[in-house]
């Protein structure tokens, strides 16, 4: 049986909740010493920013409203994948947004 990384096990559920909108604050505040939870929490923060800009704000602009629908779909897919990877104990970097998340210093 493979050895389980203690840090991943301790941060797994914090990382999972980090993808639920404003709950990205949970791993960033409660488990900021845990690299796994922090990794996913920062991605959750960037994903929340993506949702805020490309989904929420664009939905109020009639000409760009159609883009918000695509934004919802992209956001939902990335959120679900992130939550699954967090529960599986995997470091998964979101394409493009993951690079932004890595630059965040907390």
Protein traits:
66% helix
Overview of this protein structure:
- The protein is mainly alpha-helical.
- It has one domain (6-102).
- Helix content is 66%, strand content 0%.
- It is elongated and about 50 Å long.
- The termini are far apart.
- The mean pLDDT is 85.
Roughly how much helix do the residues carry, as a percent range?
Answer: 55-70%
Total tally of structural domains: 1
- State the total count of DSSP E strands: 0
Low-confidence stretches: none
Describe the sheet with the most strands. none
What value does the Rg take, in angstroms?
15 Å
Give the end-to-end Cα distance, rounded to a whole number of Å.
35 Å
Topology:
Elements: H1 6-17, H2 25-30, H3 35-57, H4 65-87, H5 97-102
Can you summarize this structure?
The chain has helices at residues 6-17, 25-30, 35-57, 65-87, 97-102. It is mainly α. Helix 3 runs antiparallel to helix 4.
